[in-house]
Structures are given as C-alpha cells and as structure tokens.
C-alpha cells in the first residue's frame, strides 16, 4: 500500500490493535484514509488517530504537587545510584557480586538449554555435576586494573538542576520516568579528573552564554549534550558539543562556534588536555540516517590510545571499550580461550575499529573483520596501517550479508591443518538470527568466542548456537566450554562475559545434537 511508516508496534497476541507511527501528520492522514474501511482477510479494518500517552513529566509534577518537595541531598544520591550503584561497596565485594550474577546468567542459560533442547538434557546434567550447577566452567572474574577514573568516554547532558541552575552532568532519571533535572558529576568515582575539569569549564561557559540550554519539555534552547573522549595513553581529550540549531542564522551559528572554541581551547582547556573540538548538530534523523551531522572546529581530528602495545585511532563516533586497561584483559582472555596458531584464520564479527582483530593478528595467519559502521572500518584500516599489520582485511556492511563472502575469502583448508575461529563482539541486543545461522552453517568453523557486554541479552544467541541441526541450522551444534567474566565497569552492575564455544570437525555430519555431544 506504500504507506510511509516509521514504526509498527504489534500488541500482545490476540489483541485486535496495532500501533503505526509516522514521521509527519501528512503521512498519518494519508494512511488513515487508505486503511480505514479496507477489506483484509474477510474483515474490515478501522483506522484512526491514537490518543497520546499521558506525559510522564506532567504526571510526576501532579504527584509532586500533593507532597512536599524532596531535599536536594536525595537528588545527589539519585545521580550516584543511577550511574555508580555499587560505589558504596568495597571493590572485592563488587567482584563477588558480579561473579554471582554471572553464575545466575549461566544457570538461566542451563535452564533454557534443558527446556528448549530435550536432546541435551543428559549433557546439561553432566555439566551441572562437574561445574557446580552451571552448564560450563566459569573461571574467577578478572578485576579491572583501575577502579576509579577509568572511563575514556562519557556523554553528559546539558540542562538545569532542581533549582533552575544550568548544569553539565548526568540526568537523575529519564524523561519517561518524569525527570529532566541534570546534576553535577564532580563526586562520581568512575569519571577521570580531565573530564571533570572539562565539564566544569563548559558548565561555566553555558551559565554565562546568551544561548539557552535545551529543554526536552518545551523543545526550546540550544545546548543539549557534550561528549568527552580521552586517552589514558596520551592524555588527549576530544570534546563533541551537541546543539539544537533551532532557527539560528549563519552569523549566529558562527558566533556560537567561535565562543565554544574560545572556551575549550583556552589555557584552562589545554590544562585539561583538550586537543580536539567537534560541533554536532542534533536533529530528527531521517530514515536510514544513523548519525548526526558533525563539524570539526579545532585541533586534531582524532585522538589515539593503546591496547596490548598497539596504537588505535579514535574518531568522534568510533566504538572503543570505555575502560582501556581492562580492555587489555578482555582481549587477552579472548586470545587465550581461542588459542589461535599460525594456521588459524580469524573472523571478527562486529569488529568496530579493529581492536580485537588487530590484537589477534600477531597470533594467527589472517584476520577478516566486518562492521556496519563505515567510519569504523576506515579507522580499522588506518589502525592496521598505523601498526604495520599486514594480515588483516576489513569490510563495511551488515554481518548478516557478508559472513558467507568472508568465509570464501578465508579459504580455510582443514586437510592442511588450517582452522577458522570466529570472534563475536555484538551490540547489547546480540546477533541477528541470520548471522547465527551463517556461523552455524560455516564449514571449517569449529571454534567461536562470544564476547558479551550484556550477557542476559545474549542467552538466545547461545541457545541457537547449540540447537540441533535443522533445515535452517544445517551445521553441527556448538558446545559451551568455558566462561570468563571481566570487570570493565567498576562501581556499576555491568560485566563483560567471554564464552568459548567449540564443535567437532564435521567429517561425518549428523543431524542429531546428542550424537554430536557423544563425540565431545
């Protein structure tokens, strides 16, 4: 029907309603006209404009009007709780709690295996007996080498606190929960001093600026957010100022940009390490647009950091693990469990700027990386050249579409003792089932290392790797061998988890998962 939809939300099973979202009123009215009264599967559709949900900010203010206001020290505790909820615990207690949480995740994994794959029940029981109730071995958590001031990237909100004072810091909650207030970050443990200095400098700037801070309530104002990136190796600081231009003239924009440069490139800015300034135009993104327009205002276009002796270029939007020193532990764990040799080819899925793949390069024959972000691939190629690494190739595109072609590029010949190892480091939501299917069906791929920043969300991927053969999953199932937790996020509940999956070489493929297990 060629409707210009933005989002379609299906309600719970059995509901007669669906919600369809549009980017503008004209598209919505055209869709209502086309759908209302339309005959579909013997039924007549009814289409009408949905009533908006109650504004959470208005609801919260109504509730607050019937009670006394909260003391300001409660707001302070709230911003701590929302960003560093474990900071009240000694670090050894934080590690114990995180190890216990990873045990819970693996127990959930085992229960899902038991209920969804009956042919694996005897195997799961055996693993539980050998590993304290877990479906695979779990090694002790690896602590972060640095607990305070470890973050190399933070996104700070620009707004007002409960007293109406302009602030650069963190929200005490989300708009959906009825919160707009921005509070100071000066007391937070995980933010390095150079970032705190940068935030304080820019906060003074916005407080005296003629341009108002942005309000999510009225959609008015200009300064909305500031992203700060820093290098532990060099001390370099990159600042990205996010602004709503509203209807500013060209001259007003030039005035604003000049003032930002004057503030951040000042002597105080240099003392904080600021060497790179970007101007980000925040706007409603069009379909297919993943990033906002960005303009380089001052200094270096990139900063550099080091991991395992390699130097990496970091562009404004590049993914880079936020705890550089702990990332070295994470990547070394991945290398150790993968155990590559000079006959191994590495398939680096969601490779980003090439950090994991380049760290593997010295231990293997060749590396093939893929990522959907084109700028990340450009950075990966630069990083390979910067470090004189010649056995890595990187490709921009969706891993769902490129895995098969990468397998052809690898051209692994098992008869010559060559092996293929996949390293998977996906976003929080995990891999799409198409990528899992292609990895399962890849001949010669008998070892897979899954690095997860959100283990609770990755369980479905792990289950799919171990499902019995089917028309879709033709390759033999993998087996979870070993898990290692690495603490990249001290003072927070988040943990990275590395899991090694293996399967026997497919000399005589069998359709039954239990037969594959019997040979392990």
Write up this protein.
Its EC number is 2.1.1.35. Pfam families: tRNA_U5-meth_tr. The protein has 520 residues and is an alpha/beta fold. The protein folds into three domains: 5-44, no CATH class; 153-307, OB fold (Dihydrolipoamide Acetyltransferase, E2P), CATH 2.40.50; 324-518, Rossmann fold, CATH 3.40.50. 34% of the residues lie in helices and 23% in strands. The protein has 15 helices and 21 strands. It has helices at residues 25-35, 56-65, 72-83, 91-116, 121-130, 193-208, 250-264, 267-272, 324-338, 355-361, 374-386, 399-410, 433-440, 455-466, 513-518, and strands spanning 5-10, 18-22, 39-40, 43-44, 137-142, 153-160, 166-171, 182-183, 223-230, 237-243, 274-281, 294-299, 303-307, 310-314, 344-349, 366-371, 392-396, 419-424, 445-452, 479-486, 496-502. The strands form five sheets. It has an eight-stranded mixed sheet, sandwiched between helices. A seven-stranded mixed sheet has the order 8-7-6-9-10-11-12. The chain has a two-stranded antiparallel ribbon with strand order 1-2. A hairpin with a 2-residue loop joins β3 and β4 (43-44). The longest helix is centred in the first third of the chain and has 26 residues, at 91-116. The protein is globular and about 70 Å long. The N and C termini lie far apart (53 Å). Mean pLDDT is 88; it is low at 71-76 and 507-520.
């Amino acid at each position: 029907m060629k409707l210009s939809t933005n989002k379609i939300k299906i309600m719970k099973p059995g509901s007669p309603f669906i919600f369809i979202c549009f980017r503008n009123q004209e598209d919505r009215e055209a869709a209502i006209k086309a759908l209302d009264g339309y005959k579909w599967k013997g039924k007549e559709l009814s289409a009408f404009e949905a009533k908006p949900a109650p504004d959470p900010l208005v609801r919260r203010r109504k509730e607050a009007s019937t009670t006394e206001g909260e003391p300001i020290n409660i707001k302070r505790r709230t911003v701590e709780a929302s960003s560093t909820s474990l900071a009240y615990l000694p670090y050894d207690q934080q590690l114990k709690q995180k190890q216990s949480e990873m045990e819970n995740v693996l127990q959930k994994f085992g229960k899902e295996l038991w209920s969804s794959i009956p042919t694996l029940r005897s195997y799961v029981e055996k693993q539980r007996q050998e590993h304290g109730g877990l479906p695979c071995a779990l090694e002790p958590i690896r602590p972060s080498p640095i607990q305070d001031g470890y973050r190399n990237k933070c996104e700070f909100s620009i707004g007002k606190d409960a007293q109406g004072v302009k602030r650069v810091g963190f929200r005490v909650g989300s708009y959906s929960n009825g919160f707009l207030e921005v509070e100071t970050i000066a007391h937070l443990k995980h933010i390095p001093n150079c970032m705190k200095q940068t935030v304080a400098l820019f906060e003074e700037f916005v407080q005296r600026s003629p341009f108002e801070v942005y309000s999510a309530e009225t959609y008015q104002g200009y300064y909305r957010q500031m992203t700060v990136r820093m290098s532990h190796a060099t001390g370099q600081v990159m600042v990205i100022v996010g602004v709503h231009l509203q209807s500013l003239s060209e001259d007003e924009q030039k005035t604003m940009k000049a003032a930002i440069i004057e503030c951040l490139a000042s002597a105080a800015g240099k003392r904080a390490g600021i060497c790179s300034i970007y101007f980000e135009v925040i706007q409603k993104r069009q379909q297919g647009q993943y990033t906002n327009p960005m303009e380089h205002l001052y200094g270096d276009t990139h900063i550099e950091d080091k991991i395992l002796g390699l130097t990496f270029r970091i562009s404004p939007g590049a993914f880079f693990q936020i705890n550089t020193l702990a990332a070295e532990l994470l990547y070394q764990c991945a290398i150790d469990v993968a155990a590559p040799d000079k006959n191994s080819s590495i398939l680096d899925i969601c490779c980003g700027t090439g950090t994991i793949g380049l760290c593997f390069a010295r231990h293997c024959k060749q590396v093939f990386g893929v990522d959907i972000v084109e700028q990340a691939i450009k950075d990966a190629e630069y990083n390979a050249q910067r470090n004189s690494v010649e056995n890595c190739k990187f490709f921009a595109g969706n891993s769902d579409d490129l895995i098969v072609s990468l397998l052809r590029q690898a051209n692994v010949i098992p008869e010559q003792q060559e092996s293929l190892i996949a390293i998977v480091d996906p976003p929080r939501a995990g891999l799409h089932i198409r990528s899992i299917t292609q990895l399962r069906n890849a001949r010669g791929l008998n070892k897979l290392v899954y690095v997860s920043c959100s283990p609770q969300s990755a369980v479905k991927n792990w289950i799919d790797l171990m499902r019995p053969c089917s028309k879709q999953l033709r390759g033999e199932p993998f087996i979870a061998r070993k898990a290692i937790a690495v603490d990249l996020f001290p003072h927070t509940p988040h943990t990275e988890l590395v899991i090694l999956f293996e399967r026997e070489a497919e000399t005589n493929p069998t359709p039954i998962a239990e037969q594959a297990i019997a040979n392990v």
